[in-house]
Amino acid sequence: MHIVMQIPAKVNLSLDITGKRPDGYHTLRSVFQTVGVFDRLTLTKTGADTPLSLSCDTEGVPCDARNLVWKTAVCLLGENPCGVAMHLEKGIPAQAGMGGGSADCAAALLGIRALLGLDVSDKALHGFAARLGADVPFFLAGGTVLCEGIGELLTPLPDIPECTLLLAKGSEGVSTPEGYRALDRLASPPADDTDNLLRALETRDPASIFAACGNHFDAVTDLPEIQRIRSIMRAHGIRPVLSGSGAAVFGGCTEPGQAEKCAEALRQAGLPFVRIAKTVPFGARIETESEQ
To answer: Which CATH number is 238's domain given?
Structure first.
């Protein structure tokens, strides 16, 4: 039996860092949105005593116990997982703030449960997801979601109208801990965006939604490649916003041909990852299923 999981990325339409707890964790308010940039995870049922295997089409991705997908199998199947072979195809860039690792983790939870017919309730699955990572529960359902606390409080919102986004990332990554430290050093925090975005979402108007997007990390992230992306997007009338702590930048496109023209300019500037994608109202899900 084979199952292929379709795994969308996410962007943070807003990201406000609202405080820091005594234990060092930062609190936030953010609106997550799944988008049509995909990883794929193929799961194949093997013998009950055949040890777990994991492969990946992308060089440098660990295919052992360091990988969140492997850790997910351990959560569901125990310390010596058996009965599943998995192959991961990466379309979501690493160190982008687009949730690739967490999304793959959610896909593995859903895929292994379906492949092996495990008696694991949705509630129990969400419990596993929360233990594996703060963003993982979001990807079990996806869509448009308000995220609060340290990432554990999720409130589903009405799905936004299908919108076109342009996404770009350079070759550099961004250190999330350093980003938080830089925000902590600011004399005054950046203005919050989430409340304005929530009001804009009620209008159902893409232009109003994109105008209200924002991210506190934009105030402290100035890598040359990110600055280049911002400059090119602004020159094409697109408002650039970081996703997560970076290093991917996205912008909403409302004019015909706007995304294509800007995408071509970004590629000519040498950016290795440039994608035009639609917002999607789903998280990790079964794309195909076969008994063969």
So the answer is: 3.30.70.890
